[in-house]
Write a structure and sequence with these properties.
By secondary structure, the chain is α+β, with helices and mostly antiparallel strands. It folds into two domains: about 130 residues, no CATH class; about 110 residues, no CATH class. The chain has nine helices and eight strands. The strands form two sheets. The protein has a five-stranded mixed β-sheet, covered by helices on one side. The chain has a three-stranded antiparallel β-sheet with strand order 2-1-8. A hairpin with a 2-residue loop joins strand 6 and strand 7. The longest helix is centred in the C-terminal third of the chain and has 27 residues.
Length: about 260
């Protein structure tokens, strides 16, 4: 009788028990997709804990510093004017907020060492998210008028928007894994031909879904520790491809025994 496995049993066995993939192969594609969705959801929910904490902390510190330091703020005709009791400069481990409307020249290198940052000058601003920098020239939005009260309101709106974006990360992981499994399945067909154990593309795709469990855990570790591994997606796929080599070998051995 075929062994029925729950999600967490599948999760653990897909990491170390290559013979379990024989059972995975017999399951429907729908069950494989359900596993992929639950696995992506689990990894995604764990992975957003740190970003949520960082965002909440950054907005809290930023809003307190803004209200305590800035006496007056006006943005009009493409020019930002800020009167403050002290220089505005917040430097955290992964976030920086700097407002400098007195300098004549903008210097984006001030936020060079931070993955997330906001830098405001009198005529230009720089927004940095996950090391990617976006420059906004104020003359592009010169019809906009903002004061201190407006900024406090916008901070709350921005915080909510960021939370919503973070909440969609598990769905993004699921979609990425669906397409990654296609790539792994194509490589698996080649592996099957090499080992003289050819399987259908549908079976290879189901097996590839389970082979993504370990790469997903490695990806979670990578994002949680903040490590920057070059060509990480290639490594992500390589781990799954190596897994598929041993999976196909285990299936061949089982089929040989049955013969």
């Amino acid at each position: 009788m075929e062994e029925k496995m729950g999600f967490f049993t599948k999760f653990s066995k897909s990491l170390y028990d290559f013979k379990s993939y024989i059972s995975f192969k017999k399951e429907s594609t729908g069950k494989a997709f359900l596993y992929l969705f639950l696995m992506s959801l689990l990894i995604g929910l764990i992975s957003i804990i740190k970003p949520i904490y960082q965002v909440n902390n950054a907005f809290k510190i930023g809003k307190e510093e803004f209200n305590n330091s800035i006496q007056e703020l006006n943005f009009k005709n493409g020019v930002l004017e800020v009167k403050s009791s002290k220089p505005i400069s917040i430097m955290e481990d992964s976030f920086a907020l700097i407002v400098d409307t007195d300098s004549e020249e903008a210097d984006p290198d001030k936020i060079k060492g931070y993955p997330n940052a906001m830098l405001f000058y009198k005529d230009v601003a720089y927004f940095k998210s996950n090391w990617k920098v976006q420059q906004i020239n104020y003359d592009e939005i010169q019809n906009l008028e903002i004061n201190k009260q407006d900024v406090n309101k916008y901070i709350g709106i921005m915080k909510s928007v960021v939370y919503v974006c973070i909440a969609f990360m598990p769905i993004g992981i699921f979609i990425k894994n669906m397409f990654t499994a296609l790539i792994i399945a194509l490589f698996a067909l080649v592996i099957g031909a090499i080992q003289k154990n050819e399987q259908s593309f549908g079976d290879m795709y189901k097996l590839s879904i389970y082979a993504l469990t370990l790469p997903s855990l490695v990806s979670l570790l990578n994002s949680s520790t903040g490590m920057k591994i070059p060509h990480f997606y290639s490594l992500y796929c390589l781990i799954a491809i190596i897994y598929m080599w041993f999976v196909i070998k285990a299936i061949k051995e089982q089929e040989t025994q049955l013969d």
